[in-house]
Amino acid sequence: MAGILDGKAALVTGGGSGIGRATAIAMAREGARVAVSDLSKEGIDETVALINAAGGQSIAIQGDVTEKADVANMVARTVSAFGRIDCAFNNAGVAGRSVGPPGQRIHELTQPTVAKMFSVNLMGVFLCLKYEIAQMLKQGGGGAIVNTASIAGLVGLATSGHYVATKHGVVGLTKTAAIEYAQDGIRVNCVNPGYIKTPMTKETMDERYDEIIAKVPVRRLGVPEEIAEAVVWMCSDKASFMTGASHVVDGGYSAA
Ligand code: NAD
């Protein structure tokens, strides 16, 4: 049966774990050739091994989304392997615990903690957009990009001011890129996951599970594959009239 991404070349950042890995695998299942990028070499090697063992075609590119030379290299290597780039999933990100102590309100957050969060979650997405779009324009236009925002890109979350700021920023970048490149046939959307069970959220979920689940109408955490399916669809030509949108996948959290 034909896949909905047949013939397309894709780049996934943060592809060594969680949502990025599940999406890279789902893209390959739908026929895309996938460049899997992450800081973690071990992570990308494992994702690529899973894809290639299932008969898919993928390559691993280690890189840091906060470094412009690395991001330029991710795009260049994708193009040298697959000839072009049709889809990109800008998903690499960090949560509060990776950049500083948890539980801090805005007056307690330090500038280095906030700067680290901004550099990965916001500058990282900016740099990916910059280099991916330049390549898509060079190819003559066309393409689909999905950025990972969050429910924290739509509502505030106490003690996550820096994370919330970055994810609202990702929504803003998404809308602006969608407008700027609509005439070039490049669609840019974001996915806004709710609470998803991944290595990123494990500690928080272990500590605050009951409190969090009480706010999720379906009364469970999501799994990365449930985000992957939405991203694959947004990257496909089936989503041809969708651009500039925030696609919420959150078990009803933001509706409540
Ligand atoms: P994860 O920790 O499993 O995966 C994130 C990946 O990003 C890791 O493999 C990590 O190595 C990589 N990464 C971190 N910094 C990087 C950098 N500078 N350069 C390149 N790669 C880097 O977490 P996840 O839950 O799969 O998160 C993926 C995305 O989803 C993030 O943007 C996160 O903010 C977002 N998100 C997650 C949830 C959730 O509940 N898990 C909810 C909403 C949004």
Automatic annotation (TrEMBL):
PROSITE patterns: ADH_SHORT
SUPFAM superfamilies per UniProt: NAD(P)-binding Rossmann-fold domains
Pfam families: adh_short_C2
Presence of keyword Oxidoreductase: yes
One Gene Ontology molecular-function label: oxidoreductase activity
Keyword terms: Oxidoreductase
Gene3D superfamilies: NAD(P)-binding Rossmann-like Domain
InterPro entries hit by this protein: NAD(P)-bd_dom_sf, Sc_DH/Rdtase_CS, SDR_fam
Superkingdom of origin: Bacteria
CDD domains reported in the protein's UniProt record: SDR_c
Similarity remark: Belongs to the short-chain dehydrogenases/reductases (SDR) family.
Protein known as: Short-chain dehydrogenase
Organism: Bradyrhizobium macuxiense
Taxonomic path: Bacteria, Pseudomonadati, Pseudomonadota, Alphaproteobacteria, Hyphomicrobiales
